Amino acid sequence: MKIAVPKEIKNHEYRVALTPTGARELVTRGHSVTVQVSAGEGAGFSDADYQAAGASLEANVDALWSGAELILKVKEPQAEEVARLIRGQTLFTYLHLAAEETLTHSLMTSGATCIAYETITDREGGLPLLAPMSTVAGRMAVQAGAHSLEKAQGGAGVLLPGVPGVAPGKVAVIGGGVVGENAARMALGLGAEVTVLDKSIARLEVLDDRYQGRMKTVFSTADAIDEAVRESDLIVGAVLIPGAAAPKLITRAMLTDMKPGSVLVDVAIDQGGCFETSRATTHAEPTYIVDGIVHYCVANMPGAVAQTSTLALTNATMPFVIALADKGWQQALADDSHFLPGLNVHDGQVTYRAVAEAFGLDSVDPARLV
Question: What is the pTM of this model?
Answer without folding.
Answer: 0.88
